[in-house]
Specification:
Layout: H1 2-24, H2 37-50, E1 67-71, E2 76-79, H3 84-93, H4 108-135, H5 140-153, H6 168-187, H7 195-208, H8 212-229, H9 235-264, H10 284-289, H11 295-298, H12 301-311, H13 313-334, H14 357-367, H15 370-396, H16 406-413
Antiparallel strand pairs: 1-2
Helix pairs in contact: 1-4, 1-5, 2-3, 3-7, 4-5, 4-6, 5-14, 5-15, 6-7, 6-8, 7-9, 8-9, 8-13, 12-13, 12-14, 13-14
Length: 422
């Protein structure tokens, strides 16, 4: 019994152990846990509890936390970050947030909870994606190897620990919940998406990060296609998807637009003030392969997933879907004025999509045999090691937070700073 249990969840135990170690004794000098963008997300906790969306009392003269004067005439300051992360964490944070102190003081327990909740979000994400692999009939060993490879070979681990105060791990969790429910309903004849949970998760995803609308849309189209293929896409199914997916998405966007408009004193769609997209300056190629956070250069395991998934006929279709999802975000962020998204380990705009790579990699591992399997495992290990080398540099401060040059990149790729611990 014990051996069977360990065989089914050894990867989760490894992940939980590493997360506990990093949380109890952080192996990096940067603190406190709630800082930078994470501070902006967290300020919503205090704003919600105080019942006041004017962030003037939290403004310290800088815009590091995303606060800015939206309507100077009224003295109204807005928070460019959405309130979803604070809403998700509120049931735990409500007991420790001090809303009486101005300027705001974030307590040590709020910092600790930020780390713990991000850890739990990643663990639940990993658990659900392994359940998806099981529903898809993939072997447990291949699934667990793939899960660890993607968690540590991309930004998932980093944005659940070092930058756990950011929104990405919560977006990853929400999208994984939708993916799991979709797979489970497709694998069970007559089943459908759970209405209440889908409604709530979609609404929260829009309030966590507005760009999650793109992933929700592509996920819904993919789900609809499978229903159509199985001759289950009737009028009732379409109406149901509109009610539990499109409606909460519209409500989430409506709430965000209302918050923006209230802060500016006029109709405003974007919460980012003067920051905007530059539609005449495409930078998608830089998003992929720039030394400054290029997605494929810092998370090379994605290259392995895409190539291996496209080679095999069985995984080609779903790999194309995953590539389409990645491409949508790469192109979108390529038009953003700050296409590298500021300080980041790798290009963080696609981190929430990484769980979808796990079943693809697991399927490739399961179907590979002999020398091909050994080669695939070797390439996976190598790609994860490369990602961890850059993670080490970022955590130790030898790799710049942003504006990474090719010299910085290759110095770390060759291991020049591997033993450096400032």
């Amino acid at each position: 019994m014990l051996l069977r249990f360990l065989a089914s969840c050894w990867s989760l135990l490894i992940l939980a152990g590493i997360l506990a170690w990093v949380t109890i004794a952080p192996p990096y000098p940067n603190e406190p846990p709630i800082r930078s963008d994470g501070l902006g997300y967290h300020f919503w906790t205090h704003a919600i509890l105080r019942g006041d969306s004017n962030f003037a009392p939290y403004y310290d003269g800088t815009e590091e936390a995303g606060l800015y004067p939206a309507d100077p005439a009224r003295g109204f300051y807005h928070n460019k970050y959405a309130p979803g992360v604070a809403i998700v964490r509120l049931p735990a944070m409500i007991f420790f947030a001090d809303t009486r102190t101005i300027p705001v003081v974030v307590s040590k327990w709020e910092h600790r909870l930020s780390l713990i909740l991000a850890d739990l979000a990643l663990l639940v994400t990993a658990f659900l994606i392994l359940r998806c692999c099981r529903l898809l009939g993939l072997p447990a060993t291949s699934s667990q190897i793939a899960m660890l490879a993607i968690v540590f070979g991309t930004g998932l681990f980093h944005f659940a620990t070092y930058d756990g105060g950011f929104s990405h791990v919560y977006s990853a969790l929400g999208l994984t919940v939708l993916f799991f429910d979709g797979v489970r309903s497709l694998k069970s004849p007559g089943a459908s998406l759970p209405a209440i949970r889908t409604f709530v998760v979609v609404l929260l995803l829009l309030l966590i990060r507005n760009t999650n609308l793109v992933a929700i849309g592509i996920l819904t189209l993919g789900y609809g296609w499978f229903l159509y293929r199985d001759r289950r896409l009737d009028r009732q199914a379409i109406v149901r998807m509109l009610l539990i997916v499109a409606l909460p998405a519209a409500i989430g966007l409506g709430i965000q637009i209302c918050l923006n408009s209230h802060a500016h004193g006029r109709f405003t769609a974007s919460s980012y003030g003067k920051e905007s997209f530059l539609w005449d300056r495409p930078m998608a190629l830089s998003v992929l392969v720039s030394s400054n956070h290029g997605l494929l250069l810092y998370y090379p395991v994605l290259v392995v997933v895409l190539i291996a998934g496209l080679i095999r006929k069985e995984t080609r279709g779903v790999t194309c879907w995953f590539a389409l999802l990645l491409a949508a975000y790469v192109i979108l962020y390529g038009y953003w004025h700050c296409w590298w998204l500021g300080g980041s380990y790798g290009h963080r705009g696609e981190v929430e999509l990484m769980p979808f790579a796990i079943p693809i990699l697991a399927a490739c591992l399961a179907r590979a045999h002999g020398a091909a399997k050994i080669m695939l495992l070797a390439v996976i290990v190598l790609s994860v090691v490369v990602a961890l080398v850059f993670l080490h540099g970022y955590w130790e401060g030898t790799l710049p937070f942003e504006f990474v040059t090719w010299k910085d990149y290759f110095d770390h790729l060759t291991g020049k700073y591997l033993l450096v611990c400032p």
